[in-house]
Design goal:
Elements: E1 4-13, E2 22-32, E3 37-41, H1 48-55, E4 63-72, E5 75-76, H2 82-88, E6 93-96, H3 110-121, H4 126-139, H5 145-148, H6 158-170, E7 176-180, H7 188-205, E8 208-213, H8 216-219, E9 225-230, E10 233-239, H9 240-245, H10 250-257, E11 306-308, E12 311-313
Parallel strand pairs: 3-8, 3-9, 6-7, 7-8
Antiparallel strand pairs: 1-2, 1-4, 4-5, 9-10, 10-12, 11-12
The structure holds adenosine-5'-triphosphate and magnesium ion.
């Protein structure tokens, strides 16, 4: 059985004055096996965070999941009660946010927060939970973890704070970690370090992870498979090495062409012309059509998801199909 099976997940934001609700994500489907790392990439506004928040039942009104299914170890998450969610979240499923202060309490010592995360979910003595917390801090590469336990979040650098948030997410050895751009605000060296450590930790603990980023280059060495999102839909999904070596969707091709490579130092990057559509003005067919170099008549209908050589694709005219 897959660890996580997301199918047809759709989320809308209701608008005031009876205007038509905005579809932020539409028919998102993917599965995650234990121990696997899945990347979700796409431009700003493509629905990455809404996907994560929908999965974690963290959407605030007027956002609402309007359809689909999310099965975690066979359990339908969309049908969980608040009590069931409190038991799952922070224990079996953990989330790391872009801003570490989303999960840290500014007026509580780092150590006390970690101890609490353990003791909310498990019967442990304070001493046992304390030892577990020191160990978690050490595992995410925090020097002198014993002393850091007494620090308040504001006494730590951004990179250290994010490490604490990651330690807090990992401390109960969750089966699934969802990380929403947790390294974007950090400088590249620290970012690379955290990604490397994250990969080790996932391997060590056997957890599965979803790693969200707007930058395919950032996640390509971390993830096993990747979902490319555009305007709320997954347009291409497959093993990351294959997607990068041979993109099938014209949007994925465009994303890859806009990444800098060492060979093209000094050359101008090729950005995808145009801008992503606003949710209130989504084209009726393929949302990428207005920017697509391969657009043809059929693209005025929305393309269904099809499986092409082990990839899931939403495109009538994929690359390499002439
Ligand atoms: N509370 C809200 N009300 C209305 N629309 C919203 C709300 N939250 C998000 N949206 C819309 O949903 C769409 C998807 O947003 P989302 O935050 O998932 O994008 P993202 O891919 O995470 O982008 P970024 O890379 O900037 O984080 C956007 O068009 C956004 O404007
Ligand atoms: Mg986001």
């Amino acid at each position: 059985m897959a660890l996580l099976e997301v199918s047809g997940l759709s989320t809308s934001f209701a608008l005031a004055n009876g205007r038509k609700a905005l579809k932020a994500i539409d028919d998102v489907s993917f599965t995650l096996e234990p121990g696997e790392i899945l990347g979700i990439v796409g431009e700003s506004g493509s629905g990455k965070s809404v996907t994560a928040f929908s999965l974690m039942n963290l959407l605030d009104p007027p956002g609402r999941v309007t359809g689909g299914s999310v099965r975690f170890k066979g359990q339908e998450l969309l049908a969980c009660s608040p009590r069931q969610w409190r038991a799952l979240r922070g224990d079996r499923i953990a989330m790391v946010f872009q801003d570490p202060m989303m999960s840290l309490n500014p007026v509580m010592r780092v150590g006390d927060q970690l101890v609490e995360t353990v003791r909310v979910h498990h019967r442990r003595s304070r001493a046992q939970a304390h030892a577990q917390a020191v160990d978690a801090l050490a595992r995410v590469g925090i020097p002198a973890p014993q002393e850091r336990m007494r620090a308040y979040p504001h006494e730590l650098s951004g990179g250290m704070r994010q490490r604490v948030a990651i330690a807090n997410a990992l401390i109960n050895r969750p089966d699934l970690i969802i990380a929403d751009e947790p390294t974007t605000a950090l400088d590249v060296t620290i970012q690379a370090q955290i990604l490397y450590e994250m990969k080790q930790l996932v391997r060590e603990t056997g957890a599965a992870a979803i790693w969200i980023s707007h930058d395919l280059a950032v996640v390509k060495d971390l993830v096993d498979r990747v979902c490319v999102m555009y305007a709320g839909r997954v347009v291409e999904q497959g093993p990351v090495a294959e997607v990068i070596a041979r993109p099938l969707h014209p949007y994925t091709r465009g994303l890859l062409d806009s990444l800098p490579t060492p060979e093209m130092r000094g050359a101008t990057l090729r950005a995808i012309p145009g801008a992503a559509p606003a949710l209130a003005a989504l084209p009726p067919g393929c949302a990428f059509a207005p920017r697509c170099p391969r657009v043809r008549g059929a693209c005025s209908e929305p393309p269904a998801a099809t499986v092409v050589r082990g990839r899931t694709l939403r495109c009538f005219y994929p690359l390499e199909s002439a």
